[in-house]
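ARCHIVE RECORD
Type: protein–small molecule complex
Small molecule: adenosine-5'-triphosphate
Source of inputs: curated submission
Record status: active
Notes field left blank by submitter.
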Amino acid sequence: MLLLGLTGSIATGKSTVSTILHSAPHKLPIIDADVLARKVVEPGTPGYKKIVAYFLPTTPDLLLTPSEQDSIGGGGADSRGRPLNRPALGRRVFGDDPERRRDRAILNGIVHPAVRREMYKEILYYFCHGHWAVVLDVPLLFESGLDVICGAIMVVAVSDPAVQMRRLRARNPHLSAEDAEHRVRSQGDVRQKARRAETRGDGGGVVVWNDGSVEELEKEVGAVMGKVRKRSPQWWAWALLLVPPLGSVVVLWNLFQGWRWRRRWDSEQRREKAKQR
Ligand SMILES: CC(C)(COP(=O)(O)OP(=O)(O)OC[C@H]1O[C@@H](n2cnc3c(N)ncnc32)[C@H](O)[C@@H]1O)[C@@H](O)C(=O)NCCC(=O)NCCS
Ligand SMILES: Nc1ncnc2c1ncn2[C@@H]1O[C@H](COP(=O)(O)OP(=O)(O)OP(=O)(O)O)[C@@H](O)[C@H]1O
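STRUCTURE (tokenized, with ligand):
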């Protein structure tokens, strides 16, 4: 089974592409890291407890008040505690200054391992059901190291940063211009991610440009999926499932390839930095 990593930057169109990939004619199952990242910090979970222990003393509005819960339809507080006030936590961790970077690293250190565990369980489920591919929708695919396990990576990118900012503010009108700017800056430049995917070569890394309309996007997704599909037909997914030793060898080979792509990219980056000095 092909693990197709779907990534990009904030508001570049990952969720829109993931909806396209989930619908006909592609009909792929989706594992959404944002959904899992919410699940693993629900009240009562170990993730929730760690976040409250670290952030509450310095973030008085970290938990929703009963009236805020009513207004978002979250129900009343129960014995597991009040839900997190996500915008308030976002203000603590999104941005470029050292304090926010440190707090973001701490939050990532709590949330990412729990997300990875949930993700592996879902991958196993889809593998056992004989799907030819599953989409891993992960905004921070490269940053979290999950690129290594993916047989192919699709980056959804926009070439004009103003388009990204406009779509973000239209989708999240509650964000101030400053908050929106902080969120965009908290993720790497999407054009850099596009270049990184392309270094993986034909079908192993593809870029979907989303500067145009949704109809154009659908066509573009169709075209790049043609390249991806060539590398991993349905019969191959069944062969891996029915011949476990073959499946194990292929998993190891894919991990090795992913690791080699990562190393190649890191050394290219080092060379570029050295040239700039
Ligand atoms: C800070 C939190 C509570 C803000 O929640 P909020 O509901 O306001 O935003 P949401 O979760 O929908 O995120 C919106 C977008 O921000 C970006 N983003 C989220 N977390 C991060 C991060 N740690 N670093 C950079 N960008 C991020 C993603 O593109 C995401 O799609 C939340 O984003 C969070 O818990 N982040 C840490 C976990 C994480 O990395 N999630 C991303 C997938 S693993
Ligand atoms: N081609 C397009 N034309 C117009 N609007 C678009 C297009 N693609 C996406 N959008 C809109 O832009 C906004 C951001 O898109 P989407 O939610 O798919 O991005 P995302 O990368 O998943 O964002 P996030 O990382 O924040 O979850 C949405 O409101 C979406 O409807």
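CURATOR ANNOTATION: The first strand starts at residue 2 and ends at 8.
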